[in-house]
Amino acid sequence: MLTWTIWVSFIGAGVIMLMKPEKKDLIRWIALVVASVGLLIGLFCFFTYDLGGSNYQFGNGDGVAWIPQFGIHFKVGVDGISLPLVLLTGIIAFTGVLYSWNIEERLNEFFGFFFVLIGGVYGVFQARDLFLLFVFYEIAIVPKYFIIAIWGSTRKEYGAMKLVLYSFAGSALVFIGALALYYTADLPGGKTFDLDALASANFPVSFQLWALPLVFVGFAVLAGMWPFHTWAPTGHVAAPTAASMLLAGVVMKLGAYGCLRVAIMLFPSGMTANVTLPLWFPAGMSGLVIHHFWSSVFAIIATINIVYGAMVALVQRDFKFVIGYSSVSHMGFVLLGLATLDLTGLKGSVMQMFSHGVVAGLLFAVVGRMVYERTHTRELSELGGLIKAMPFVGGVFIIGAFASMGLPGFSGFFAELLVLIGTWRAFPWLLLPIGIGIIITVAYTLRTIHKAFFGDRRNDMTKWDHLAPVTIQEKVASLMLVAILVIVGLYPPILLNMVDKSSDQFIKHHVKPSISGNLARQ
Amino acid sequence: MIPLEHWIIVSSCLFAIGVAGVILRRNALVVYMSLEMILNASNLALVAASRYNGNLDGQVFAFFTIAVAAAEVAVGLAIIVALFRLKQTVQVSDVTTLKL
Amino acid sequence: MNSSNILHVLNLLTPEIVLCGLAFGVLLLDIIFFRSDSVEHRHEQLGCSVIIGLVMVFFIYALQYMDWQNTFVVGHGAFVASRLNTLFKMAVVGLALITVVIGFKTPYSTHVGEYYGLMLFSVLGMVFLISSEDLLMIFIALELISLTLYVLTAFQKGARRSVEGGLKYFIFGGFSAAFLLFGLSYIYGATGHTSLREIAGALQGDQLAKVPMKMLGIGILFTLVGLGFKIAAAPFHLWAPDAYEGAPTPVAAMIATGSKIASFVALTKLLLIGLPAAAGSALSWPTRWHSGWAGTVAIIAVLSMTIGNFAAIMQTNVKRLLAYSSVAHAGYILVAIVAIQASGVPAPSAAPAIYFYIIIYALTNIGAFGVVNAIGSKAGGDDFEHFTGMARRSPYLSLLMLIFMLSLAGIPPLAGFFGKFYLFAAAVQADPKNLGLLWLVAYAIAMSAVSLYYYLKLTKQMYVLPAKDPRRVTSNPAMNTSLGLIGLMVLLMGVFPNKVVERFENLNANPYPIWEAAVPPPPQPEIPVPAPAEKPAVPAPAAPAPKS
């Protein structure tokens, strides 16, 4: 049944694409219906997910043979890790449609591309076959180009092309890795792309050591991993509001999800294996042994993400760039949680994906839709004093910013806390730079709130007198996102229970055996 | 009997001269004659090899090649004439409307 | 099964005879009956009769395809009739049909009968090229294709671009034909046979010692150069952009699709049936690299992908862009050709992958050329600027172009994606234990990531930039329908490729396979093809005959 989220999106895209662009209101309402169907199915499954039942639910069992010559199946299903992300996609799609209510130009094409993208994202989160996952992953790439290049703003064609080429280069790495692992996997049931079967394939450690970085980096490009993050700020800034929300809220999670579901699940030993670097030392040592080589490397890179993203966000002059770099910084937490390979860290990582998805959606909506389309400037130095003119917008932004800072009471708090606990267990020495990063996060968030909504121009009110009032659609969508932040923040078990269960399964089945096996070998 | 290598060497020389002509000459007609020379180099190799292999396939091949070369003459000259009508030149270096 | 009964041979050749008759018939009809009519009228009459004739030929092939279980070999392989070949012939005839439809009523010249006649003769050449397994027939069929296409390229006698494109195509093509012939003459000289299967026999086991290896090596090298021109592989691609740009668009479509299919089939057969023993290996340089054609083809593949993709980035003419993209695609296909014999035995899915890809490639490209023709003839040219804002001037054609471009770039769920996956998977499969060809596949995948840039650049013109000229562009219903069908097929073959794959894999492994001679002897001999060190400055091969 959950599969219908995919089909409804694709069918909706086709129907809207074929409609006359002049029937704008009809198109908007159809888009809203399509998005809400996805959201409702997601919600229904979210609340009926059986915590005592099997790990993967709402799927189609062992799948349907799709291209049997290559062992490719149409196999779907969600566990406690992917279900929150499916729900997140529904939320962002629904609110994205509401925030796009004011788009007038080529509306049918806009929502057409929008729902192709959404359908692809739904597919990635549900796929349990590597080939299927890859297909959906690539389907999600191209619509982004058109959405940004046609309806975007600042340097839109450059931003769009950069984003698409980065994504496609990343997926090329994944493609190479997928072909290599497909032929390397020695399975009793023959060659297959079935992720569960591949996860039991026990790839040779020497293979994992080069295939893991290939696949991990390939996916992590889309998660905004340093130094391949540069597409993210330019892409986010260039994109129209709904697309920024999707990009930061969902698409970046695709990358992180791929890292988890493909790279770590198939190559856990690659993460934990020790590597001897061929350095020569005077005292007869043969080289420098690094324990948990790739895991450490990715943890360090994730820390760089956190600190670097925050530092760059601190010095931005453009409101949207601040949010763009803050996304890079927050995705660092997601990657860090994955790199710890620790149950708590992993849970935190999944929580952070959900939480940051909602927060980023909210913040981009405020900046791109509610502020920029009224003031026609995003320069922080030209904004200021907006709180009087738009108290609702200011309030929403402040709540979102606090959630993004990780204040208790909001979803981000738990997520980051869990990631930090995981990091404490795995890489305690990383906590110092991360602490600095968190302080900088507070600094840039407060600076942005101050500059945009308060600032020196607090008393110079005439400038913002002419601003259009906030529409009902914007209010509904904003309140919805705020409500989710608060609900998850005040009652995390609503999400944490299922995340906990599936993360536990994930660690138990995929990571633990490899660690013990690895230790036994040494 | 003259050994096969001698024939092969002569045919290689003809081939090399033909290739040099195609690459170095600027006149479309001369280029065209050089092409024919390469075809004849092949014919020579075919006939010689046919003699040494003891079957007639190569000689049949050579006959067909001659016929094909004749057809190529017809087509090639027609194109060169069409070019001359348009540009009053048969120099390859003057054919520059299309960038390379 | 060898056929010597003349009636049986004629029976096998029915569709080819009909095709030949059709070609002459069109010429005669034009001269005898329609000479005095207006050009447009002649276009209608002759175009319709050609379409009817081609549909008939297509159905005869379809009947043969359903009827046959065996492979019939006429005259040591001069004509081989098999289901696989028939499938390709159906593809070529179908592409010719589409070419006629997309070029319908766009008069490039007053010589209507000759236009259709030459087109049919080139189809005849393609059909014979597909079914020949003999050096002589390969050469003659290739020349038949080439000679007709030279004329068709230069068909707009009054247009400089057309004639210059024709001249360049002719000079490069003639040069390549000469290379090919020279190479074939050396292969014949070295092995003493013209039939591919007999050549393979002459290279088997202890026969091999009698073969002058340097001569064979040079022959193979020159043949590859000659065929490399035909498939527009770099560095032999220089004619392609000019010929594509200069030729009337339907002719360019023919060069890019039908002639490509036929040439690739010929190349695959030549290497797989005739010369499997000389494959060498291109696995994991340098330790497992043995000289042979595989290494040469690998180098050509790398060059084609690099030059094709990077040169395409700089193009501002759609036809030139398609030309360079076809160079790149030739490179991708060559990757699988390298794999075909990579580890001593034929890779099981390499040949089907090549067939699948060339069909997909031809289908996508003929669709793209169809759109270019439809838009170009209305908008006044095929430069990028003529396509600006086309998404609003002609949403239908733009959507189709988007599908074709994304399929060429390899975006799922379109056919191009699965085609590439199949090609590259087959290439890796050639040596699954050591992933010996992964280096080449990785390069190909990286290059196809580059290719997305220029395909998006074209679609950007159509979708992103505003139209300068708001008038709508429409095309005739026949064209719309056929292009729509192609678009649908590209989509369906991408979503459900399993049926087509199944077909190709079955045909490739049927009990009377066309490739039966390709199975090499169990002890695979090491091929001492000339080592680079002892390469003579002048290609003067010394046959190792005893010095008297």
How would you describe this structure to a colleague?
The complex is a heterotrimer of chains A (522), B (100) and C (548). Chain A is an all-alpha fold and 522 residues long. Helix content of chain A is 71%, strand content 2%. Chain A has one domain. In chain A, the strands form 2 sheets. In chain A, strands 1-2 form a two-stranded antiparallel sheet. In chain A, strand 1 and strand 2 form a beta hairpin. Chain A is globular, with a radius of gyration of 22 Å. The longest helix of chain B has 31 residues, at 57-87. Chain B has one domain (8-88): Helix Hairpins. Chain C has helices at residues 6-12, 14-32, 39-67, 83-102, 112-131, 135-153, 160-191, 196-202, 213-230, 239-246, 249-256, 258-274, 293-313, 318-339, 350-379, 390-393, 395-409, 415-429, 438-463, 477-495, 498-508; strands spanning 2-3, 72-74, 79-81, 281-282, 289-290. In chain C, the strands form 2 sheets. A 3-stranded mixed sheet of chain C has the order 1-2-3. Chains in contact: A-C, B-C. The interface between A and C is medium-sized, with 34 and 35 residues.
Write the layout of secondary structure elements.
The complex is a heterotrimer of chains A (522), B (100) and C (548).
Chain A: H1 4-18, H2 24-48, E1 64-67, E2 72-74, H3 82-99, H4 107-126, H5 130-139, H6 142-151, H7 156-184, H8 195-199, H9 205-220, H10 231-238, H11 241-266, H12 268-272, E3 275-277, E4 288-290, H13 293-314, H14 319-340, H15 343-375, H16 386-389, H17 391-405, H18 411-426, H19 431-453, H20 472-490, H21 493-521
Antiparallel strand pairs in A: 1-2, 3-4
Chain B: H1 4-24, H2 28-53, H3 57-87
Helix pairs in contact in B: 1-2, 2-3
Chain C: E1 2-3, H1 6-12, H2 14-32, H3 39-67, E2 72-74, E3 79-81, H4 83-102, H5 112-131, H6 135-153, H7 160-191, H8 196-202, H9 213-230, H10 239-246, H11 249-256, H12 258-274, E4 281-282, E5 289-290, H13 293-313, H14 318-339, H15 350-379, H16 390-393, H17 395-409, H18 415-429, H19 438-463, H20 477-495, H21 498-508
